[in-house]
Every structure is written in structure tokens, then in C-alpha cells.
Fold each of these.
Amino acid sequence: MSLIQGLLNQLCEIYSVTTDAYSDITRAKVYSNVNCRWQEVITKVVSSTGEERIATVQVWILPDYIVKENYELLKDGKYYKILVINKEVDLSGQIDHFKLYLA
């Protein structure tokens, strides 16, 4: 059982995002009704490409879901882009949850 299981009392949806040759965005729902913890806070993060970015939301989810940095989360009718994914581990070294930084 995850250390944060009891704190995941909000819901969001996860979408994959693709862009065609004309820069049109297409979203495909990957997961719906994902239990999460959602916190709006401004944070400076470093992306996997080394860019410093400003995140406006932090989200915690269980490792049951596979997410990538080009995915978006939908909450309350607004899409948020995943900037950084942190894997948080428990005391045994197993992945306990993901902490996502969104903008």
C-alpha cells in the first residue's frame, strides 16, 4: 500500500498529445477517473532536457499509471501539460508514487 493512498481524494483525466504536420493538436484519453492529489503552487523545475520551467500545479498519482512528459491532465475543464515527472520511492526502494509538475 502506498504512503499517500489516503491523500488521493481528487480526480483527473490523463491524455496523450500528438501534433500533426500542420501543428494541429490531437488529444487521446489514456486514463479517466484517476485518483490524485492536486495542489496549485508555483515551483521552478528543471525538465529532462535541462530547461528551467515554472510549474503552477503539483499532482501526486500512484505508479499504476504510465505517464510521459508530453501528456496532459484535465481537471475542471482545463488542460495542464506535464513538465517533469519525479518517481518517489518508499523505504524498501520500490516506486511508491509519481509527483508530476504541470503548467
Amino acid sequence: MIFLKLWERYNAYSANVVSEILEGHFDCPSFNFVLAVAEDFAIKNPKGIIAEIQKLIPRWSEIATPLGVPKNIVEKIAQDLVQL
């Protein structure tokens, strides 16, 4: 039952985000949007997690390349990474 509720919430978020992207109203999630999702999924310390991830953005290529991520994928993802 809990899984079903989480799945329904996830689908609702996904549908809203996809709709916004397709309509051209959604470039990237806001900090508050990410915090709201974290709260809905009971993620503890979301601000700390976001901060840690944000610190790694400049090192994305350095981290991904040794893991075997193809160069074109590394470059595409690097273009899409944003600071919240």
C-alpha cells in the first residue's frame, strides 16, 4: 500500500514536470520544488544532500569518465547540470 502511494506521487510529479517541459514552462526545477519533493518522500537533510551534489557539479567529467560513461553522454549531462 505504501509503495502504491509513493508510486502515485511519483507519477503525479513526473506528469507535471513532463507537461511543463513540453509546454516550454519548465527549464529546471527550483530549489523549493526539490525541497517539496524531498519532503513528500521523507528524505532527511535535503539541503545537505543538495549542497553535496552541487559541490560535485564542477567535477562531473572527472567523476564520470573513469566510470566508463561515454564522452558524448558526459558532455550532454554537463550541459544540463545547473546550480539550484
